[in-house]
Amino acid sequence: MSVDLDALRAHAVALEGEPDRMLVPEPFVKDALRALGTTVPRGVATADGADAAVAAKRLDGAVVLKAFGRGIVHKSDIG
Which of 27, 38, 54, 77 could form a disulfide with 33 if both were Cys (CB 3.0 to 4.6 A apart)? Predict the structure, then answer.
């Protein structure tokens, strides 16, 4: 088992104000962990709240919503 580090780097973005630090969005990290055989929670990425509501119903159970995108490292970054 291995992880394609070039693929992860392709999705990495520099942290705002800290160009030497890079962030790989969670969905890509979870894919890499799965490729290594690690169990990770099921998930789905959506573009907006309406799509998230539909996806949550399909997951059938407790869900956690997370925001990710350029400039967001942690939910506290956006309030």
Answer: 38
**22 has which bridge partners?**
14
User: Could you give the 3-state DSSP secondary structure of residue 72?
Assistant: strand
β partners of residue 18: 15
First to last CA, the chain: 38
Q: Helix (H, G, I), strand (E, B), or coil: what is residue 22?
A: strand
Residue 30, sorted as left (phi over 0), alpha (psi -120 to 50) or beta, turns out to be alpha
In tens, the pLDDT along 45-71 reads 888 889 999 999 998 888 888 877 766
Nearest by Cα to 45 from 33, 60, 30: 30
> Is 32 in contact with 3 (CB distance < 8 Å)?
yes
| Structure-token pair, residue 48 | 């907006």
CA–CA dist 24, 8 (Å, integer): 7
